[in-house]
Amino acid sequence: MVAPCTKHLWVGFLDPNLTDEEIPKDVAEWLSDLEIDRISPEHESLRRAARVVLKKYISKDAVWELGRRPYHGKYTICVDDCQPQNPAHTSQVCPRYKGVSKFCRWANIRYAGNPCDFQHPPRMSPTIRAEYWMEDVPLRSAKGEELVSHFMQSAPFHNGTPRVVGIQSISNPILHERYEARKRYQDSKHSTAGTECELYHGTNCNILPIVYQHGLKVPSDFMADDRCPVSGGKGLSTSLCNNDCKFCTQPHQWNRCHMYGLGIYLADMAAKSHRYVSQPLHGRYYKIVKCRAALGNPYLVEGHLKKQDAMHDHIFCAPVENKIAPITKGQAWAREDNDTYYVKGLGGAARPGASVVNSEYICFVPWQVLPVYEITYELC
Q1: Are strands 162-171 and 133-136 parallel, antiparallel or unpaired?
Q2: Which residues, including other chains, have CB under 8 Å from residue 343's CB and lie 6 or more apart?
Q3: What is the pLDDT of residue 253?
Q4: Can you tell me the mean pLDDT for 346-351?
């Protein structure tokens, strides 16, 4: 700790069996001698932690003493200063960014969680020097016919019947290596081969070159500003920037979007992903990306959102049974260590704004998704 005092604490490595609802009570009991303003739980995979805001400042020495205080009578846990613009952080590169994962989920978060105030220099991104190339896949080849056949299974789309005019394969060795590393990590974490499948992704056609070099980016929680040289002028909803952008600062609000969190949305039906394709080339040619997806151990969401924006601000996969009204009594919920949300389509039983007709899959780590084909089509 560098600052002489703080009232913002990060308390980590708590009892891994705690739920999000139990964490604040557990931490409050451990800090019973301090006046607490609020406690925000953190739940990432098996790790349990909390951000604590105190009503009064405590000294650096008091923070160190907390680090030696017994937890549940026999353990010690991690305590750190997490005040905004922490002087110990702002001059250093994020440990997550330079670690094994090469990814920090809080780098582009301002409002939905606790922003990371470490540095995330683009020069340290594993894809900064990545190169990709694309090759035509003949439509009458075996692979071409397979891709077209699967693509057309959900036709016609909501606004017309598609006609595929071209397919290209996408190769990016660095992205491929990151994808395989993430898949190996998930497999080792669960001690079994995780779920993997090919799914569709629809997005703004103006940013596809960025996607093919750097991979699909998990959404930020703030809007793109037209003045921004990185995110402006592309017709984007959420910004491509990190939380240190001086232009993109307005919070992204729920607007019938991101129903199940700020993640990468994929679908097993082209018709569903087509709804999210924007800025078609010359106003005519649409492009959908077919991706390999390392879903790992998915968390099944089968029911109706209790509030339309109940999950909008989720930035990673965490239990949501308190936010979903299940469609069957006694439904068993996944609890621990899930990698993605599998939102089961409810068909005719779906409720607008509360559930979906067709299934979708939400990933929260960019390396879980590898673009492999670009399908170009027009509507008739």
Answers
A1: antiparallel
A2: 260, 301, 302, 356, 359, 360, 361, 362
A3: 87
A4: 94
pTM of the model: 0.87
Q: Is the peptide bond before 95 cis (omega within 30 degrees of 0)?
A: no
Collapse the DSSP code of 346 into the 3-class scheme (helix H, G, I; strand E, B; otherwise coil) and give the result: coil
CB-count exposure of residue 142 (10 Å: 0-12, 13-18, 19+): exposed
Number of C-beta neighbours around residue 84 at 10 A: 10
- Strand 340-343 and strand 298-301: the pairing is parallel
Could you give the dihedral angle defined by the CA atoms of residues 18, 23, 25 and 26, in that order, rounded to the nearest 10 degrees?
60
CA neighbor of 273 nearest in space, from 215, 359, 193, 201: 201
Q: What is the pLDDT of residue 332?
A: 59
Q: Which two tokens stand for residue 229?
A: 């040289």
Q: What span, in angstroms and rounded, lies between the C-alpha atoms of 241 and 107?
A: 9
Alpha carbon distance 222, 241 (integer Å): 9
- The whole-chain average pLDDT of the chain stands at 91
pLDDT attached to residue 337: 77
**Of the candidates 232, 231, 251, 250, which has an alpha carbon nearest to the alpha carbon of residue 241?**
231
Q: What are phi and psi of 42, to 5 degrees?
A: -125, 135
* 3-state SS class at 376: strand
> What is the per-residue DSSP string for 67-93?
HTS-BTTTB--EEEE--TT-TTTTTSB
Helix (H, G, I), strand (E, B) or coil at 169: strand
Q: Which amino acid is residue 296, in one-letter code?
A: G
Please identify which residue in the block is written with the tokens 């006609």: 163
Q: Are 112 and 140 in contact (CB under 8 A)?
A: no
The DSSP 8-state label assigned to residue 276 in this structure reads T
Question: What gap in Å lies between CA 334 and CA 320, rounded to an integer?
Answer: 9
Assign 231 to helix, strand or coil.
Answer: coil
Helix (H, G, I), strand (E, B) or coil at 138: coil
Residue 243 CA to residue 238 CA, distance in Å, equals: 12
CA distance 112 to 95: 21
> What does the alpha-carbon distance between residue 58 and residue 62 come to, in Å, rounded to a whole number?
6
Integer Rg of the chain from CA: 22
